[in-house]
């Protein structure tokens, strides 16, 4: 156990898998935790001693599956491997204990045996000033590398929550708290310095200066941290598959607000609800799926870029034979990026290299499908694939011609290569496969050469292979036969040829496997040497697969390509929510929607609960995202000016772990929108202000609408149940009212309310909340009581606007409209006290006798019926002695 404890001290808090024979063993707390996570048997070591050590183990041949389960549980795993052959331990002159070392470490952010299209980031933050940070993200399985600019704490938190980060590295005392989804690891202050980060990255990317792609020193340190961490865990000096970093937020891409992807169900969430990515993902490869997801989360923002991609998609969609040819070729493309990740770290197996060779070999078929194109985008892709194919063709042909179709999962098992790769391997394969036939041929040759018809070639475990000659033919035995054994009636001989065969045949299998391992290592080295070219090929194939997926969307009924220009207008004809439409199988009610820079940049949307307000707003945002990806959209036609960013505030979520209520989360997200949105933004706001008192909520919503219409002047969809806000259209020329239509009304308390799901001009008169409550199944008596309460409240409510004289006051009446700190006048809401409540408030209930209390209740009844008016004071109760 001394060796185990020494390695455990080096494992830096990781669970240590300690190789012992055919098992990897865990001890102590690691064993207890592993037994719980992996559901394996927990035993003990030295069970007869006072304090036996807990122990659990997993078979070495299936360890990868167990490692993945530990990583999924958020654990770090260190591999303590045997570095010597156990067979020589204890022999004369040999070691007494097998030497073991930690050969690599896996963490939630550093793993290579991944499948699917989801990225898996190891991230690090570095300070860039007081309250400022730089963020670097590295997916070591694919080589994707991202760096941010300088972020404030709010922006940093938003990025961390939006990205698929599995592990975050930070200095001690940094401000990121732990979350359930991210492993937070605090590093010592001296983990890497700025000069060390500079030197490491220059060496790794083979450049003299970093200024061209990492302009900020904080970003250099953050990226240096993740690269150094990855190198140390894999005990490598360089990982050639890592790409040069690209900006986290691309400069020519549409910006999605902090929670827009979640609000709009763009990608899969924890609840596994339907999402847009799964709906449109018609890619045939994992690399294509990841590229499509990148396009979805960062659509294009410039009309010329959108037009170029849209033209490419249109061209692919217009030729069904070409699209089918691409589909047949792309289905043969494996996850090239992750294969290269395993090659770079020495974790690749023969199936990986065979899949790589097959993937690269689709280039000729793709080039044939891309001939005669008018699209600049497709032509550039074709040229890239052709250029790289000229460089990697030899490697691809070497792999596909040399490797057997049934490649083994483990290289040490042999059976990797075909004949013709190596003369020595061919001989060993012949010995292994054709040994018996060779013995029969030898026997035939020797009988003919010696003239001994009874000569036999035989084998036993004690003497091995021999030639047996009967006593009657001993005089015919050639001189080169060497006697091996004498038996009753016969002599046994061997020849140098037979002895060599025996040596070769007995050891052929192990020698064949060892030679194939050497040849496989040479093949891996050849792949490493062309990593850059293979990565170029992977990127081109990924983009082509993503274009192919978008082109397939054009086949869907009712999908069309939008027109996108530089205006600030937005018009959609018969638009549909892609996800809801797919779920309803043709039953979705389409809607038109129009925003104009001259007259209606903001739509105030009212209508009943469940009437479709949120759906219309979400579908508008989804249509814009799809259109600016270059894809067709679920609408009969549409046109709009390019959107630079999409901000959303939809739904009700709290953040209890951060001490934030639902309303606080809502206000934080609203604040972010009001600070960062610009005139080219698309803003979607759903029921702002509902998480607090009515008047507070109306005030916040009122002020926000004025700010959006007068300051930001962005295209905005604003859904609300505060009907007071609909009066704002009379003073805000860029605001307009629309509502979701219904059939039925309040006069039919028990009647059916029919939702039409159509957008109509003008404001709604009510929200039909009690109708919806009845539909939801509230008890009949509760619904009936709700109607009565509503009638009472409305009978005693103030003016419908809630404002003196039914008017409206601006929040920006100050002399200087630009200064936010100017004194502003706010809407004043007049509140009248009910006379019954006023009587109760003025009464001294503690001093009333029972009889007085009964009289008081009778008086309240009279007041409520209007028989008498409320008095200013309630009569004083009699003295205590009269009670």
Keywords, separated by commas or semicolons:
disordered C terminus; MutS, DNA mismatch repair protein, domain I; 26 helices; seven-stranded mixed sheet; MutS, DNA mismatch repair protein, Chain A, domain 3; Nucleotidyltransferase, domain 5; 6 domains
Estimate what percentage of residues fall within beta strands.
15-25%
Class of the largest domain in CATH?
Alpha Beta
Instruction: Report Rg.
Output: 39 Å
How would you state the average pLDDT, rounded? Answer: 87
How many domains? 6
The gross shape turns out to be elongated
- What is the strand tally? 28
Write the layout of secondary structure elements.
Elements: H1 2-10, E1 15-20, E2 23-27, H2 28-38, E3 43-45, E4 53-59, H3 63-72, E5 77-82, E6 100-106, E7 121-129, E8 132-139, E9 144-147, E10 151-152, H4 153-162, E11 165-171, E12 183-187, H5 194-205, H6 217-234, E13 246-247, E14 255-256, H7 260-263, H8 276-280, H9 286-297, H10 303-318, H11 320-330, H12 336-344, H13 350-360, H14 363-369, H15 376-402, H16 423-450, E15 456-460, E16 464-470, E17 482-487, E18 490-494, H17 496-529, H18 531-553, E19 563-565, E20 570-575, H19 578-584, E21 591-595, E22 602-606, H20 613-629, E23 637-641, E24 645-649, H21 662-676, E25 681-686, H22 694-712, E26 715-719, E27 735-743, E28 754-761, H23 769-776, H24 780-795, H25 835-842, H26 850-865
Parallel strand pairs: 1-5, 7-11, 9-13, 11-12, 14-24, 19-23, 22-26, 22-27, 24-25, 25-26
Antiparallel strand pairs: 1-2, 2-4, 3-4, 5-6, 7-8, 8-9, 8-10, 15-16, 16-18, 17-18, 20-21, 20-23, 27-28
């Amino acid at each position: 156990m001394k060796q185990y404890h020494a390695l455990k001290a080096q494992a830096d808090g990781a669970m240590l898998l300690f190789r012992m024979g055919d098992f990897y063993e865990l001890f102590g707390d690691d064993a207890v935790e592993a037994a719980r996570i992996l559901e394996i048997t927990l035993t003990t070591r030295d069970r007869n001693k006072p304090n036996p050590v807990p122990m659990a183990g997993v078979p070495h041949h299936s360890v990868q599956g167990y490692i993945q389960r530990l990583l999924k549980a958020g654990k770090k795993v260190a591999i303590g491997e045997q570095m010597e052959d156990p067979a020589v331990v204890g022999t004369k002159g040999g070691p007494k204990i097998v030497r073991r070392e930690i050969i690599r470490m896996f963490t939630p952010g550093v793993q290579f045996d991944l499948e699917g299209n989801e990225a898996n980031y190891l991230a690090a933050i570095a300070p860039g000033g007081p309250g400022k940070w730089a963020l670097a993200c590295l997916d070591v399985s694919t080589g994707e590398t991202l760096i941010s600019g300088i972020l404030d704490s709010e922006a940093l938190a938003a990025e961390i929550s939006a990205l698929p980060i599995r592990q975050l590295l930070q200095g001690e005392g940094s401000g990121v708290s732990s979350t359930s989804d991210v492993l937070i690891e605090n590093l010592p202050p001296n983990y890497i310095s700025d000069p060390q980060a500079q030197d490491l990255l220059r060496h790794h990317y083979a450049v003299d200066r970093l200024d061209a792609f990492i302009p900020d020193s904080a970003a250099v340190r953050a990226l240096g941290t993740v690269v150094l961490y990855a190198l140390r865990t894999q005990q490598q000096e360089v990982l050639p598959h890592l790409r040069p970093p690209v900006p986290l937020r691309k400069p020519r891409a549409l910006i999605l607000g902090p929670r827009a992807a979640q609000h709009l169900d763009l990608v899969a969430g924890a609840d596994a609800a339907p999402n847009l990515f799964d709906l449109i993902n018609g890619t045939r490869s994992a690399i294509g799926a990841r590229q499509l997801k990148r396009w979805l989360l960062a659509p294009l923002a410039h009309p010329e870029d959108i037009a170029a991609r849209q033209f490419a998609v249109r061209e692919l969609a217009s030729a069904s034979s070409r699209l089918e040819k691409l589909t047949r070729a792309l289905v043969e493309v494996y996850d090239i990026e992750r294969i290269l990740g395993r090659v770079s770290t020495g974790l690749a197996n023969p199936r990986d290299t065979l899949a790589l060779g097959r993937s690269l070999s689709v280039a000729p078929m793709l080039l044939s499908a891309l001939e005669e194109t008018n699209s600049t985008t497709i032509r550039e892709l074709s040229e890239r694939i052709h250029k790289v194919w000229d460089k990697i063709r030899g490697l691809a042909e070497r792999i596909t011609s040399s490797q057997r179709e049934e490649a083994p999962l483990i290289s040490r098992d042999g059976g990797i290569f075909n004949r013709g790769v190596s003369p020595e391997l061919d001989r060993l394969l012949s010995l292994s496969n054709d040994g018996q036939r060779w013995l029969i041929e030898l026997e035939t040759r020797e009988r003919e050469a010696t003239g001994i018809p009874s000569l036999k070639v035989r084998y036993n475990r004690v003497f091995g292979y021999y030639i047996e000659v009967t006593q009657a033919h001993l005089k015919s035995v050639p001189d080169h036969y060497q006697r091996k054994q004498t038996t009753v009636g016969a002599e046994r001989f061997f020849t140098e040829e037979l002895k060599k065969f025996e040596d070769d045949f007995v050891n052929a299998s192990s020698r064949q496997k060892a030679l194939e391992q050497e040849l496989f290592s040479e093949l891996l080295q050849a792949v490493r040497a062309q990593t850059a070219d293979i990565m170029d090929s992977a990127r081109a194939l990924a983009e082509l697969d993503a274009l192919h997926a978008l082109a397939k969307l054009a086949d869907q009924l009712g999908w069309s390509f939008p027109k996108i220009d530089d205006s600030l207008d937005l018009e959609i004809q018969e638009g549909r929510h892609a996800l809801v439409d797919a779920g309803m199988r043709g039953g979705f009610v389409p809607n038109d929607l129009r925003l104009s820079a001259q007259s209606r940049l903001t739509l105030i949307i009212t209508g009943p609960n469940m009437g479709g307000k949120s759906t219309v707003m979400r579908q508008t945002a989804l249509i814009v995202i799809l259109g600016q990806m270059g894809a067709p959209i679920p609408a009969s036609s549409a046109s709009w000016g390019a959107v630079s960013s999409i901000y959303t505030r939809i739904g009700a979520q709290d953040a209890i772990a951060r001490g934030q209520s639902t309303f606080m989360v809502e206000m934080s997200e609203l604040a972010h929108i009001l600070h960062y949105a610009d005139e080219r933004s698309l803003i979607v706001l759903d029921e702002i202000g509902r998480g607090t008192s009515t008047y507070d909520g109306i005030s916040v919503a009122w002020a926000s609408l004025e700010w959006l219409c007068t300051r930001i002047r962005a295209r905005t969809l604003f859904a609300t149940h505060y009907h007071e806000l609909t009066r704002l259209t009379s003073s805000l020329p860029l605001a307009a009212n629309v509502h979701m239509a219904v059939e039925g009304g309040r006069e039919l308390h028990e009647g059916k309310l029919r939702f039409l799901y159509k957008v109509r001009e003008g404001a709604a008169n009510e929200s039909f909340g009690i109708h919806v409550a009845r539909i939801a199944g509230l008890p009949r008596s509760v619904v009936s009581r709700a109607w009565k309460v509503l009638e009472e409240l409305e009978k005693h409510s103030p003016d419908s606007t809630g404002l003196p004289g039914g008017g409206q006051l601006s929040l920006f009446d100050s002399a200087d409209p630009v200064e936010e700190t100017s004194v502003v006048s706010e809407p004043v809401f007049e509140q009248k006290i009910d006379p019954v409540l006023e009587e109760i408030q003025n009464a001294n209930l503690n001093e009333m006798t029972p009889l007085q209390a009964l009289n008081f209740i009778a008086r309240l009844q009279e007041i409520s019926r209007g028989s008498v008016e409320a008095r200013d004071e309630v009569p004083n109760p009699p003295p205590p002695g009269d009670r």
